[in-house]
Amino acid sequence: MALRSALFAYRGESSPRTDLILAVVALAGFFIIWYLISAFEIVPQRFLPTPIDVVAALWTMLTVNNFIEDIWISVARVWGAFALSVAFAVPIGIWMSSYRIVGTLIEPVVDFIRYLPVPALVPLLIIWFGIGEASKIAVLFMGTFFQLVLLIADDAKRVPKEFIEIGYTLGGKPRNITKDIVLRSMMPSLVDNLRITLGWCWTWIIVAEIVAANSGIGHAIWSMRRFLKTPEVMAGILTIGIIGLVTDQLIRVAHRRYFRYL
Q1: How far apart are CA 6 and CA 207, in angstroms?
Q2: Which SS3 state, helix, strand or coil, does residue 143 take?
């Protein structure tokens, strides 16, 4: 009874074990509903194959079509672009919140660019960077950086002003205050926002790999689409979902471990 009250209470709490069980039940329910819709031909299997067919197609792709290489290539592209976004977004976001002139100059430009549709920029990025890896990294960077930098700026703004004043009182310089007070204070929310934007980066992988690409998950999905191989297409999508879910959960675990005081 207490567990039921906690689960249905506004902002109620439950144990990690209960959360895990509920997550497994939700995923199982999703796949069962998917199977029933496909098995009973509510949607023709040509367009929605059963989960079993998708898993079988994924196994064939991994063992016969060397799909594992495409996976590693996509992972490298996403993490490379994401690392580049973080390297630029963290210092720029902190400077935007710390110095009014920096925020005033940069924020309008960032706001303008982040509303531009990334797919519309693909032809321009190819003109600028060619058809190699640089253009694919640029697509992922464009879809991630301009969102992330504003999130980081907001995180830095939420650091209590009292903390900064205490730092100045103790003789701290702006560089020390940024490193030892602002960055440390915003770290929990920063990691959370990095987790979220990493997911956004993965959503652009298809766009990045369907133009002038001969490898990667997006390329494999686009190639299978031409021949209406729906199980293989869904297997590629399922792969991205699995990678994203595993990565997200690992970051969540690290967040709970290193920020237990929250």
Answers
A1: 42
A2: helix
0.70 cut: is pTM over it? yes
Alpha-carbon gap, residue 191 to 252, rounded angstroms: 9
Domain 56-258 has CATH 3.90.850.10: no
The phi, psi pair for 162, rounded to 5°, reads: -60, -35
Q: How far apart are CA 77 and CA 79, in angstroms?
A: 6
Give the DSSP H or E segment for 204.
Answer: none
Q: Which two tokens stand for residue 95?
A: 């400077």
Please check whether residue 140 is in contact with residue 204, taking contact to mean a CB–CB distance below 8 angstroms.
Answer: yes
Q: Which residue has the tokens 């109620």?
A: 12
DSSP H or E stretch at residue 176: helix 174-177
The label of the residue with tokens 């959360």 reads 19
The pLDDT tens digits for 190-234 are 999 999 999 889 988 888 887 767 888 888 888 888 778 888 999
At residue 74, what are phi and psi to the nearest 5 degrees?
-65, -40
Which residue from 139, 144, 145, 148 is spatially nearest to 206, judged by alpha carbons? 139
Rounded distance, CA 32 to CA 21, Å? 16
Residue with tokens 């399922």: 238
Residue 95 CA from chain centroid, whole number: 24
For residue 45 the two structure tokens come to 């299997």
Asked whether the beta carbons of 222 and 77 are under 8 A apart, the reply is no
Domain range list for the chain: 2-47, 56-258
